[in-house]
Amino acid sequence: MDLSIANYASSTVSVFLGYGNGSFKTEMIIPTSATPVYIVANDFNRDGKMDFAVVHNTISSLGVSLGLENGSFDTQLNFPICNKSYGIAVGDFNGDNVLDLAVANNYWTNVGVLLGYGNGLFRPQTTIGTGMFPTLLRVADFNHDNHLDFAVANWANNSVGVHLGCGDGSFRAGKTFSTSANPWGLAIGDFNGDNSMDLVTTNCGDNTMSVLLNYGDGTFRPQTTYAIGDCSYEVAVGDLNGDTYIDIIIIGTYSAYMSVFLGYGNGSFATAITFITDLNPLSLTVHDFNEDGRLDIATSHNGGTVNIFLNTC
Questions:
Q1: What does the CA dihedral 176, 147, 265, 284 come to, rounded to 10 degrees?
Q2: How far is CA 175 from CA 151, 159, 166, 186, 204, in A?
C-alpha cells in the first residue's frame, strides 16, 4: 500500500511507494498547479495503474495526474471547478461503470459533480446546492436503491446534508441532519451492524464528534456526541481490533495526538485511547501497510512529517 499527500505550501503531491512491510521508498514529488488541499487516488483511465486527483484551493481547478508504467505520473490535467474548494470523493454516479468525481465547493455553497469519460478526462461540473460552506463529502448508497448518494458536512449550518442519487449523475435536494458546531471531518461506516451506512462528523466549534445512525432509507437518527478534545480536520473508520465492529479514529489538529474510539457494534463507542503524534496532524488514513491482515494508521502533519502506526492487536 502506497501513500499520497497534498502539500499546500509547495503546490506539490508527495507519493511514497510502499514496500509492503510498513516502510516506504523515498518520497516522489509531483508538481501540481497550485495549493492542493485534498486528494483521492483511483484508476481514472482504466489502464490498471493508480492515478490521483487533487483539489486546488486558491484557483478554480481540479487536477488529475495519470499514473505511468514506471510508477511516475504524467503531466497534470486540469478541469474547471469553483475556487475555495476542499473535499473530493470518487464514485460511479451515473451507472456507466466509469469513475466520476465530486468536489465540495466551500465558498460557493455547492458540490460540483464531474462525470468521467473513462479515459482520465471529465465533463464540465454540474453543481448541486448544499448548506453553507461545505467542507468534506463522502459517497455511499445510503437508501439501498443501488444508486450512489453523497453526504457533505455543512460547516456554517451545523449539519450534514444527504443528497440521494438518481442513478443518472443527478441528485435530489439534500436533507439536513443536525450536528454540533462547525462540522469539518466526515466519515461513513456501519456502526451498529444493520448493513446501512452511518455518519460521523468531527466538529471544530466545540471539539466533539457526532455519530448519526441511518434508519436505512437515507434519513438519520438524532446525533450522539462525544468529546474529542480538539478540532479534527479528518476522521477515519475501520475495525482496528479485529472484533468485527467499526471503530473511529480522530486527530488533534491543533495539538499532537490521535485518538481511537473502539466501537461496541451497537452504534456506541468506548472512551478514547490516545496516541502521541507529531505536532499538528492535518490528515489521516487507515490501511494495511504491512500486509499482516490488520489495519494500520498514517497521519500527516503541518511540519512536513508522516507518522505510521502499525497495528499490534
A1: -80
A2: 10, 10, 15, 16, 22
Residue 266 Cα to chain centre, angstroms:
24
Query: Where do the domains of the chain lie?
Result: 32-122, 130-276
Residue 225, burial from CB neighbour count under 10 angstroms (0-12, 13-18, 19+):
middle
Give the C-alpha separation, 30 to 64, whole Å.
11
CA distance 290 to 8: 28
**DSSP helix/strand/coil, 156:** helix
Whether the predicted model's global pTM rises above the 0.90 cut: yes
Domain 130-276 matching CATH 1.10.3720.10: the answer reads: no
Q: 10 Å Cβ neighbour count for 21?
A: 11
Predicted local confidence at residue 70, as pLDDT: 86
C-alpha cell at 263: 466501537
Residue 112 has pLDDT above 80, yes or no: yes
CB 299 within 8 A of CB 281: yes
pLDDT in tens, 46-84: 999 999 999 998 899 999 999 999 888 999 999 999 988
Residue 117 grid cell:
469519460
Task: Tell me the torsion sign for CA atoms 248, 138, 156, 39.
Answer: positive
C-alpha–C-alpha distance, residues 180 and 226, integer Å: 10
What is the spatial distance between Cα 103 and Cα 123, in angstroms, rounded to a whole number?
13
